[in-house]
Fold:
Amino acid sequence: MSISAGGADSRIIAAPPFMANAFPRIPLSSVDAPSLSAPRLAAWTIVVIVVAALVLALAGAVALNAGAHLRGTPPTIVVPATAMTIARGQGRATDAGLRLDATAPGDIGLLSAPDVVVDGDAYSRITWRFGIEPSGGVDLAMTWSRRDRPGTVYSAPIDWTRGDATIDLTRHADWGGAVHGIGLAVRGRLSAPMLLADASLRSNAWDATLADIVDDWFAGSSADGTSAMTSMRHEARQVAPLLPIVAAAIALGAGFVVWRNRRRRETIDAGAIVAIVLAGWLVLDLRMQALLWQQHAASWSAFAGRTLDEKRAAERDAPIFSVARRLRDAERPRGGRVLVLSDSPALATRVAWFLYPDNVWVDTRRSSAGQPPPLPPDALRRGDQVVLILKRGFAWDAAGGRLVWPDGRTREARAILVDGPDIALLEIR
Amino acid sequence: MIDALGAAASVALSWGAGALVVRALLRGTSDEVPMLAIGYGYLCGAFATTLAMRAMALAQVRWNLPSLVAILVALGALAAWLARRQHALRVARSRAKVTRLECAALAVALLLIVVRLAGIAADAMVSPLRGYDVWAHWATKARVWLETGTLSPFVSAETWLARGDPSLYTDANPGHPGTVPLLQVWTGLFLRDWSESLIKLPWLAMAIALACAFYAQARLAGATAAVAAVATWLVMSLPVLDGHIASAGAADLFLAAALGMAAMATWRWARTRDRRMAVLAAMAATAAATIKVEGLIWLAALVPGVVTALNRRVGYALAIACAAAFAGYLMVGPEQFPLLGYVLLSRPVNVTGTLVDHVLVFDNWHLAGYVLVALIAWRRRALFAPALAPATITVAAMAGVVVVVFYFSSAAGGVLDETLVNRFLLHAAPTLAFYALLLVVEALAPSTAMASAPAMKPADA
Structure:
């Protein structure tokens, strides 16, 4: 865009005397905008440079992450659940896999395949596949033994939040040689049983590594559509994330252009370098478009044309909504205060959200000495409604019509909804 | 369908009124560009809407659609009348030849932006609210205020318990400002029932407004249509930005857009010295301050740039004084010092690994981290030239804010557990992107005299 320079322009750039000399006063808009110089290289040459640089960068990534073998035979070793036992914790074998109902005292569970023998140098990427995922709030770790170091059990934490649990031990100092026995450790309380379907040990040969790298790029973090991708944090579990590879490819391509120009004693072809950077950006963006459209399609399939309650029931945490819905729809006085108590602040906050616009309270009190003190009985007022959901220590005394605190203090109450020891909605009297 | 039309009407009313106000403000200047009015118009209109709602709440008048619509219509009509009283500047057609390459670049960039936003819109408009902050910190207020029809107070959990007043409410973050929930309420007023999907429409509008404002400011800064469009695509393609549009409900996108618009207008004012652009910058800055508490921290980072625009020597001295004051705090200050909801620490927390992962390894920002570093290295000799100095000082101050918040504050925990790192960087993303564009545009236009003009004052020599 260009704007005619003239009296009007001079007027608008007038400045007070104290700042008049701070900057020269020629508005950029008074001249034609500069044109980005077109690359001197032909388009096809730039495309060839970009593709070649990407191939080189990818080859470098494979070389950095692969083992000694060119081909993995077999590419994957699958350890079925039938080859596993529960070494710690309670559970049993089922047709669908190994089911762990509860961890052992000390909140540790261990699912073990003691007879597996595998060449650790050739198989270093392990995936534990679940029929039913462990509940949130537990940590997972991989354990293994080595034939050359009998009596020692090694472990490594698995970076896991949901889905199958994957760990890459290629660079782990203690993984290698003849691995004899592997296991999956579960740390924490399981609020629901988990089901382990199998474990697979993936070859780190060049062909398998290349396939894994490319597969990772198109495996979105939220492909089920029930949560939006707000971070690419899941790439931490990838063999070689795409961004550094593209960045390396751009550096290679730009470096080649500069080298070529210098060798020919030409000025640097800045247009070609810009084109290479934009091509790299486009590669990343097209990948992102592909991931996003997977998510969009899944969102449409899960939510489109449904009522709000149906949408909430289609979300990943539908069981929480199911409980909250019963609390919300229970026959109870409206307009009063509702206190949601749970050992899990996240669970309490989520349940509370489903109860708004009621006047809901969740314990977000902060204390410099760690946990805030328990809610005192006299903090509750007559007519307050108290939701107890997975809250240890508090109990509903149905016979006495009392809410009982862990230290034995009580308040008279009326049950509005009680479902076992874990869920109760009471009205304080 | 009727609800969808209602939601669209809520956004259109705010947008239309705001665009007319911006147009009236810039009428008769070289900056009266339709895209600028559209871009800044939504921020201005949305902010005006929330001010009207606050005023009604203050007057203890329950919100009602006819009154609020009337206020916005009156605002738009007044702005249109004021604009008519001034003559527009005659705009000459560009004499520059547009090459086929530029046409193709413009078309491809536009297509990529449209495809991206269309997909996100389709997703956001059917899905419920997603993400902890969205339903624990923000929509709680909207849900209650829509029900009560006024700004019912949100207090801390302790106060709520102690007071026992049923008119007091609480949530996981009662201290957040009300601007963003008010926009959800505004859209909610047009709907028959509470809809977690349709109240996300303001986020889509804000994203489009940001794209328009960025494009318009890029053009005013001297970029060709193709360069401006490609730069706009680069910004709108940032995955974290897109994620925040798709998971609409948190305030970070609004803060990023408001802060970006404030910075762009400030830098434009630094060049033209047109006070009306300064008014636009002040409006965007005020909006940013009312969107999230962090807005105040970011606005503080704009101050050294403004001072530099007025007098470079004083600006540099201010920047150095700020750095020295912080260094002094590190040497002799208390171990912990509460500040704007954060706790300042005198000993650093090492978050470099997380920061590098999220900026340079994971595809959160595409190549933005690499490109910004490369551009600054390439243009290092021009960074403090008169045309770029205010922007450079602003960006340096923003980098200082990131260093202080990430390494020397209680927020380091949020960086390490990865809940804060991208969210906080998002606030600065549009501003940094525009700075990167300025570095390119200035390099392409040495003859425009902004960078090479002789200094007129000893301070600028």
